[in-house]
Design goal:
Blueprint (H helix, E strand, L loop, with lengths): L21 H12 L3 E7 L10 E7 L2 H19 L5 E3 L6 E5 L3 E7 H7 L1 H4 L4 E5 L2 H6 L10 H7 L4
Parallel strand pairs: 2-5
Antiparallel strand pairs: 1-2, 1-6, 3-4, 4-5
Length: 160
């Protein structure tokens, strides 16, 4: 008779990511630090086909700035959260850089590329929230646009 010396493995604690999660806040703050524009976070948790809990989408007017935003996100997330990106793609051409933290995927677009791919419309079943820099709202109280006409924006962006 074989002895049962199997050691019970400790159960992994599953943490549920929320809009208030530190990772999400650090990513959005990092984008704001490097002057990323039109920041939108998409909550995809209620979509069964989604590859992630959240998408964070932003844009920049130049490839240099797209790369700088991606670099700064990785630096700050490592410093503040102790996490490394699972994968990073698109830095060669820098028209659409993706930084993947598994539960949060960051999409940093060149302005024209974002308009072409219309990622927010593709994932319009998700709940979107525009992230507006507090300093900018003091200067200009207008909401940031996601590059769509106002009628399309209301359909694509559902506020919390």
């Amino acid at each position: 008779m074989a002895s049962q010396s199997a050691v019970a493995e400790p159960q992994r604690k599953i943490t549920r990511l929320t809009r208030n999660s530190k990772l999400l806040k650090v990513i959005i703050k990092s984008i704001q630090d490097k002057k990323g524009e039109h920041i939108v976070s998409l909550d995809l948790r209620k979509i069964s086909e989604s590859v992630s809990d959240f998408f964070v989408v932003c844009e920049a007017p130049s490839t240099v700035q797209v790369r700088a935003i991606a670099d700064w996100i990785e630096v700050m997330v490592k410093q503040e959260c102790g996490e490394l990106a699972y994968k990073r793609e698109g830095t060669g051409v820098a028209q659409w850089v993706l930084v993947d933290y598994v539960n949060v995927v960051v999409h940093i677009f060149l302005t024209e590329t974002r308009k072409f791919y219309r990622l927010e419309e593709t994932w319009s079943d998700g709940i979107a929230q525009e992230e507006i820099d507090e300093e900018k709202t003091k200067l200009a109280p207008k909401k940031a646009s996601i590059g769509n006409s106002p009628s399309k924006e209301k359909k694509a962006v559902k506020k919390l």
